[in-house]
Amino acid sequence: MSSMYNGITIHIIQNMNDLLLIEHQWNGLVNKVSNNPFLLSKFAKQFIEQNPKGWTPIILAFLENETIIGIAPLKTRKSLMGRYVDFLNPSWCSDFIFDEKYKSTCINYLFDFLFNSLKINFAFFTLSIDSPNLKILTQECESHNLHMETKPEMGRRILHIKSEWTEYEASLPRKYRKEMRRTERNLSKVGLWSVRHIDGRNRKEELIKKIDSIEKRSWKEVWRNQEGEDDWILRSVIEAAGQQSKITENFEWGSWFLELEGKNVAYTLVIKYKQVSYFVKTSYDEQFKKFYPGIVIQNFAIHQQFIEQNEHIDFLSDLSYLKEWTNDCLPRISIQLTKGAMHSMIHCLLKNRIIAKVISIYSNVIPTR
User: What is the pLDDT of residues 154-191, one digit of tens each?
Assistant: First the structure.
């Protein structure tokens, strides 16, 4: 399915075959305009395959003379209150992919296509404050008669690597350095411990096996069993990283493992793209919680990024313990767009406490994002 706008075609991609046809151009565009590895094609493929129940993936490719100038990786859902659109990617790594030259044009046509052709009632977009698309997106809302509401989301801690490790380590609070040395001594009292790195590009299966063994002994496993959930995002990221590293030169991934007496007790999974290291996840064996194994392995992984002289580390979240390493936090905002009279009606409903309570009971009315 395609639509034409003044020489620019919007092509809808909803299956793997169509995605493969544009994969080379897709990755080339990401490499040109973004440092976000999670916007690369293999991640979209995995997010499509693992798409949450009730949502329909819909990737919009913008083409001029058969050249891709923009991509909007989205998903849609219908409910009793209307039709919704959101990013395909999880909110911590979501964005549009637009060529700088065509950015304003693509966002203009995107809004027209979503709200007029697809009859979207609500659009939810979570963007980092440094997104190259944020300013133009907000500017285009007025010309399309869209009501915009924003709210802050969890930011992303950023550690800029500007010095040698020894200089950086000396700048950390004395209390933290003292606690780290004490933790390492306590580990040594339990037994022989070491840190091992596994490169996912050539030892993927071994890496997955070790991560799975730790996850099954983490505190999150109890919650997952109680809720009937599984960590589909982690599985999707690992699978996508394995596939992407085979076709993208400046893409690396792997994990650092903390081993105690030959047993894997903690890991930190890292993806590196264009000299930026993304700390995807850290987890540990609940049995060794008092030894802070997650802190130990993450501190070691940070040390390695200094040795490799990478540009910076993106922790992808703003969890409180990350303040030990950096005070810099990149904010993110959630944007809700609605059009015309529909906004007034829904706004009144959501402001009414009684209606809001009914909605919370019948949660399937409003889709979880």
Answer: 999 999 999 999 999 999 999 999 999 999 999 999 99
Q: Is there a contact between 246 and 41 (Cβ–Cβ < 8 Å)?
A: no
Can you tell me the distance from the alpha carbon of 100 to that of 126, in angstroms, rounded to the nearest whole number? 20
**What b/e sequence results for 195-228 when a residue is b if at least 16 CB atoms lie within 10 Å of its CB, and e otherwise?**
beebebbeebeebbebbeebbebbeeeeeeeeee
Spatial contact of 160 and 312, defined as CB atoms under 8 Å apart: yes
Structure tokens at 40: 């690369």
Tell me the two tokens of residue 57: 């993936």
Listed in sequence order, the residues at least 6 apart from 352 whose beta carbon sits closer than 8 Å to its beta carbon are: none
Q: Which residue has the tokens 């924003």?
A: 150
Cα–Cα dist 221/230, whole Å: 9
Task: Say which residues have a Cβ less than 8 Å from residue 49's Cβ, sequence separation at least 6.
Answer: 236
Overall pTM > 0.85 = yes
Q: Report the distance separating Cα 161 and Cα 165, nearest Å.
A: 9
